[in-house]
Amino acid sequence: MVFTIGTLVLVSFAVSLMALVVLIWAISRSDLQLDQHDADTIFEAEARPAGFDDPSERTEDTRSPIGIGGEDLHPAASRQAVLFMLGMATLWLVIGSVFGLMASFKLHMPDWLNDWAPLTFGRVRTMHLNLVAYGWATAGGVGLALWLIPTIFGTHLRLPRLALLGGVLLNIAVAGGVTAIGSGWTDGLEWLEIPWQFDILFAIGALCLVVPLLATARHRQVHHIYVTGWYYLGAMIWFPVLFVVANIPGLHVGAQQATVNWWFAHNVLGLWLTPLGVGAAYYLLPRIIGKPIYSYRLSLVGFWALALFYSQVGIHHLIGGPIPTWVVTLSVVQSVMMFIPVIAVAINQHPLWMGNLSAFRASVPLRFVAIGALLYTAASFQGSLEALRSMNSVTHFTHYTVGHAHLGAYGFVSLVLFGGFYYVVPRLLGRVWPMSWLMHAHFWLVTVGFAIYFVSLSIGGWLQGQAMLDPARDFLASMELTVPYLTGRSIGGTLMLLGHFAFAINLVAILAGRGAERMPLAAAPQPGE
């Protein structure tokens, strides 16, 4: 066991060293010029002046990105791949949310819909997790990457047909894997439940998506790789390695398997979904507001600190487990070190939108991204504190941990994705969202609903943990006291699901051709007319 766990730690350490080597190489090639002017790269990549930019309701801002040389950065084939990924992600979000709400109700109504095996809690909750993690967040994040990488690099997407094929294969794997889970066929590890046969198809699809993105980056037309590019390119390299290593059947068993399980599960959040979310926020916040980030140097510190410190964070989930103490201690130390990249991101992103509250009030996409970025800071601080043994002893095996996971995966990642979708789709289709009131309803439903959800689980989970640590109290008491808070979770989840329906209806409408179109310049009304 020591050899296997030690090997895993050494591999992760080697990955961190490789990241450091890439950093040194990039500096030697002047790809990391530590100059504040490089924060303007996203404005220079497009033939579009800086300034307030919200294509969700302003027809004049719905123009597809044009490169400095006049090239359409998103020709038809590229748009097909992006829209396919965004559409499928929305479908998985709605279906996964329905399963999630069912699982929530079952926690305080255990006999509800319990007569059919696929609708039992164990299967419904697992289908929810895989649909939102690999269907919604992964497909949606990659869909945004297919739009953002060509846009920030000032060139069109290379191999768009290969990207579309990859998207099709990835979504087939998600559909097949979740169907298998519903039928009782699963690999049985959290975050790794999809049978390995479908994992192969998923990995092939992911490879077909990564290759075009890397090829596009290679042909960039800008002098500098903006920080969003670093987050995206890092994620494109990290995730395939994580996914393949964790899904090799029979490679790890027992305590070793549990170690690999949480090494993978936490790195999916930190080295895959986090770069997708933070990278998107680093583009969307300054682009919508029309002003660069506060400190470009600090943005690069945040990225490389994430690359160097995150790889072993997940092992703190095994505090008290049958694994060497030094492995857990290493994880606790790296969890605390994560304050560095999180503070770097917070200093860069929060003052930008807080100092431009007029834009925040005027733009729904900006509101989603800004609140999502704020919750990234909250989730990361909470996670670092939760890794400490003193706090972990209370929160472990409680609903508090579930609330924390949703603070990161939903409060941060999903809200940023919503803002990204609202920004990108109009610029792909050349028309604004047809029902702006649904956008506003979506925002309030998911933010209020998630606040109820998170607060309920945090309070109920903390009380649950204290009750379980009290030897004078029966274990059943620790379960009964959570019922009101689980009911609150379901109320919040219901509001969130309604928001998702509002989002999906608006997307279907704009894809069907609804919404005001952007007028050609020659046809635009002149002042005084």
Tell me what the structure shows.
By secondary structure, this protein is mainly alpha-helical. Helix content is 72%, strand content 0%. It has 18 helices and no strands. Helix 4 (121-153) packs across helix 15 (399-429) and helix 5 packs antiparallel against helix 6 (196-218). It is globular, with a radius of gyration of 23 Å. Mean pLDDT is 90; it is low at 521-529.
Reconstruct the topology from this structure:
Layout: H1 2-28, H2 41-44, H3 76-108, H4 121-153, H5 160-182, H6 196-218, H7 227-247, H8 254-289, H9 296-309, H10 325-337, H11 339-354, H12 357-362, H13 364-386, H14 389-395, H15 399-429, H16 436-469, H17 475-480, H18 483-511
Helix pairs in contact: 1-9, 3-4, 3-5, 3-18, 4-5, 4-6, 4-8, 4-15, 5-6, 6-7, 7-8, 7-9, 8-11, 8-13, 8-15, 9-11, 11-13, 13-15, 15-16, 16-18
